[in-house]
Amino acid sequence: MRVSYNWLRDYIEPGLSPDELAERFTLSGIEVGAVQKFGCSLPGVVVGQVLSVEPHPGRSNLTLVASDVGTTVLNIVCGAKNMKAGDKVAVALPGAELPAIGVIRETKIYGAMSSGMLCSAKELGLDLGSAEHILILDDTAVLGAPVEQSLELDDQILHLELTPNRADCLGMLGVAYEVAALTGGKVTMPPLFPPETTENIHGAIRICVQDNDLCPRYTARIVRDVTIKQSPLWMQIKLLKAGIRPINNVVDITNYVMWEFGQPLHAFDLDLLNKDEIIVRRARKDERLVTLDGVERVLDSDVLVIADSLAPIGLAGVMGGENTEISSKTRHVLIEAAGFDPINIRRTARRYNLPSEASQRFEKGVNPEAVLASQNRAALLMAELVGGKVLQGVIDHHTSPTKPPLIMVRPERVNKILGTEIPAETITAILEKLSFVVQPGGTGSLEVTVPLRRADVMMEEDIVEEIARLYGYDKIPVKLPRGELLANRPSLEDRLYGSIREILVSCGYFECITYSFINPGSLARLRLPDDDHRMKTISVQNPFTEEQAIMRTTLLPGLLKVLQHNYSYRELNQMFFEIGAVYEPESLPLEKPPLEKMKLAFATTGLVPEPNWLVPSRNADYFTMKGALEVLLGRLQIKSAAFIPAAIPFAHPTRCAYVKINGEELGFLGQLHPEVAEIWGINQTVTIGEVDLSILARHTDLVPTVTSLPRYPAASRDIAVVVARDILASQLECTIREAGGSIVNQVILFDQYEGKQVPDGKRSLAFSIKYRCEEGTLTEMEINDAQKNIEKVLFELGAVLRT
């Protein structure tokens, strides 16, 4: 909200400078984002009066203007011809500096001496009129006075950063009431009652409100015999200060009164109304309206319109229509001031992308008491400034008058909430500054009647807030809170889930969240047998769609649906995980709530890492996911995990495994069977996995452990053995560690080979063994003894050394 300091003084004298007032506003809870000077500095530009206008002797397109500037008469060469003798104009004296031109100097133009310059509004930095026309000042301008003073360009604009609840400050009078509360001043209302003719409005127009819910109040006045022209310069300047572009006197008056009262108004050309009738109704399907911005809008029954007997003439509370626009031909005007449903106005403005000053105010709620006052104010200004004749009476359709709320306020509760000891008399004085009516109630309470302009004050706590901000937040003492401080340490589960997310994201995975309800067919697409425990599902009684008909018993369908959706948009490289609950009933139909188990699921497909110039990419497969899971288990300090080959209905028969910790099954991982992947619409390798987080939590130690750096050097030996394909590499690794004893520090499988040199049904596995002793440097003999013992044990296992 832009607040002109000088304009504000029309209603109240703050007794503070603009900067001091801004600080007082901010301390009371209404933030002032900036205090900005309006207009440019114009040193050397004064008010002059045209004495004569003569043609230039050398140029027919120029004139010689004699202008009295109070102390002397200047002869000025001018290209504009819209001024006449007696007009008061802005004269830039020699040496004056204009924003867009620079320094004005006395100069000879085609043989005639020009001692200054007559200025247009554009040259003064004002967005008014045409650049080819001289700005004609009001007759009240003082001859020889600085133009800055005459045009009130030395004004300050306060930019109020209003919160949505303070709609009362979207008008100058509302701001004035706030200033009165802060300073103790008194608000002066502008004149409201226009002179009326003997013709009654009820014989000139018919108003019919068909939807009282969306339009609880509608008022209309008629002004005849108006003359459309520019508004007085003082009004145009005030509108510029508000950030509104002047258009013509009738439209400018409606905008001026809106900025004054915070109540939007609209003016219709009465002669363009069909059958002199206004109907407030919902639009009909596919009705069309060309709004004032020249765009045709297609309407439906969700939109409230102002219509005549033939068609819509405006979007209620948002924008008028071209078909009744005020133009230079307008002679009779109908003024509309109404109250509309805020939610409907907001939806209409958003739907048609038509944010406006009017819709902004209706969305937040206008003051019901301001409707009739603003209507009368606009009619009065049209009578004074437009030469109009105001018809007798006002049509006021008001279905349910709003009563001011009555709130019981307990001073002891006010002080308890604020931690203060404010006397009841002080509380009463503060509320009366806000123009609240305060009466004593029973048992020491106060009965507070809140004016309708303060729609944000609805209960006792709102009154407490008003008291606090006017009393002064800086006066409220700082006190330590009383009560028992409770520990707020995250639970083991929360810390575990947070660690899992952090680890998997560092491995390149992205977390996603899918619905807890799934399509029954998704389990069938996993080729699960009927006796599988995951087929025992809970049906939703009132599902939104078939896609959400049952509660999930596994996270895999949700993740696969995400992969399929992204794959259909050619996102081929995907790595996802999800932490979520699955629901397993103990019996069906349900007799008690199902078991809710937290699971972790993975899904990968495409290349890993994403193709780049530095690191080669490869297809994500079983070992990609196994590596990520091993990193996760290692970071969670689980060192006893085993991967056991398994047959899973929806997995590749030779590329899947169960994951076990100390013999307890944690979950599974493996490549999705190509046929299942095809059913899901993913024509590339997909690897999936799922683990039970409750089992993982039992074996996890979230307390980090550290070991000192080794003091003695390590020795490395490699060994390659040929073994049957059904012997697991992890089994060989365990054998090497046991056979090598405590000096085996690390065992790494670095090669697997199957080829011509290896018999059928067998494979060659090569391990790198690192030996280290924490108590001293190992001797060659100790290392050789350990290596021989490892070879011996591997031989007993059926392994053959490969040389």
Estimate the strand proportion: 25-35%
Strands ordered across the widest β-sheet: 30-34-35-41-40-39-38
Instruction: Please count the helical segments.
Output: 20
How many β strands by DSSP?
A: 45
Mean pLDDT, as a whole number? 92
Main sheet summary: 7 strands, mixed
- Measured on Cα atoms, how large is the radius of gyration? 42 Å
Characterise this structure.
The chain has 803 residues and is an alpha+beta fold. The protein contains 20 helices and 45 strands. The protein has a seven-stranded mixed sheet, sandwiched between helices. Strands 3, 4, 5, 6, 11 and 12 form a six-stranded antiparallel sheet that branches. Helix 19 crosses helix 20 (780-796). It is elongated, with a radius of gyration of 42 Å. The mean pLDDT is 92.
List the helices and strands and how they pair.
Layout (H helix, E strand, L loop, with lengths): L1 E3 H4 L9 H10 L3 E7 L7 E11 L7 E6 L4 E6 L9 E5 L4 E2 L3 E2 L3 E3 L2 E3 L2 E2 L17 E2 L9 H4 L5 E6 L10 H12 L12 E5 L5 E4 L7 E8 L8 H10 L6 H13 L3 E5 L7 E6 L5 E3 L5 E3 L5 E4 L4 E4 L3 E2 L12 E7 L2 H10 L5 H8 L5 H16 L3 E4 L2 E4 L7 E4 L1 H8 L5 H10 L3 E4 L5 E4 L10 H12 L20 H15 L3 E2 L5 E2 L1 H5 L13 E2 L10 E2 L4 H13 L5 E11 L10 E11 L1 E2 L9 E2 L2 H14 L5 E5 L5 E11 L2 E9 L1 H6 L6 E7 H7 L15 E10 L4 H12 L3 E10 L8 E10 L8 H17 L3 E2 L2
Parallel strand pairs: 14-25, 15-18, 30-34
Antiparallel strand pairs: 1-13, 2-13, 3-4, 3-6, 4-5, 6-11, 6-12, 7-8, 9-10, 16-24, 16-25, 16-26, 17-24, 18-21, 19-20, 21-22, 22-23, 27-29, 28-29, 31-33, 32-33, 34-35, 35-41, 36-37, 38-39, 39-40, 40-41, 42-44, 42-45, 43-44
Helix pairs in contact: 5-6, 6-9, 7-8, 19-20
